[in-house]
Design a protein that fits this description.
This protein is mostly helical and about 160 residues long. It has 6 helices and no strands. It is about 75% helix and about 0% strand.
Length: about 160
């Protein structure tokens, strides 16, 4: 396995069946926990940028000269998108010195919303997916991650602000 394949498949997670995208998203959860535990939100932010740029490169290498621009085994895009979705809990946990595990409803919402947006591809997510290049493979998941993060923030605001939980 070359380095591009190792990165693109997240160490082979992309070969798990069924639903390799869901496995890739799931694999991101312990990564977020470790990154946040070691360096809080700033380390997660730095790692996200590294994953994005490494993912664009790896996807380009893995799909060069191939008809399928987004093979299912490439799941580094799901990791990047899930990182973004979970920034919505990493930042408040870090800024308020709260254990990130205490925000467990946000973990569930971030995972579920990211998968929902990644699978259904509404609006700009679908546009990015149709680009047909390595950037598009990554971009649709990045946008899905932003949508999921916004959803987590809105749900937290409703839960804490309206419901008073």
């Amino acid at each position: 396995m070359n380095i591009a394949t190792l990165i693109g498949t997240v160490g082979g997670v992309g070969y798990l069946r069924p639903a390799p995208g869901t496995w890739g998203s799931f694999a991101a959860l312990p990564m977020v926990l470790v990154l946040h535990s070691l360096g809080g939100f700033p380390l997660l932010l730095i790692a996200t940028f590294i994953v994005i740029f490494a993912g664009i490169w790896a996807t380009g290498v893995m799909t060069a000269g191939k008809e399928d621009h987004d093979p299912s085994e490439i799941v580094i895009d799901e990791v990047a998108g899930q990182f973004i979705a979970l920034m919505a809990i990493s930042y408040p946990a870090w800024a308020n010195d709260i254990p990130i595990t205490a925000l467990w409803p946000g973990w569930i919402a971030g995972f579920a919303l990211f998968r929902l947006f990644d699978i259904t591809k509404p609006g700009p997510i679908g546009w990015a997916d149709r680009r047909g290049d390595a950037l598009g493979v990554m971009l649709d998941d990045l946008i899905a991650g932003v949508f999921a993060a916004i959803g987590v923030i809105l749900l937290a605001g409703f839960s804490h602000g309206v419901l008073g939980l």
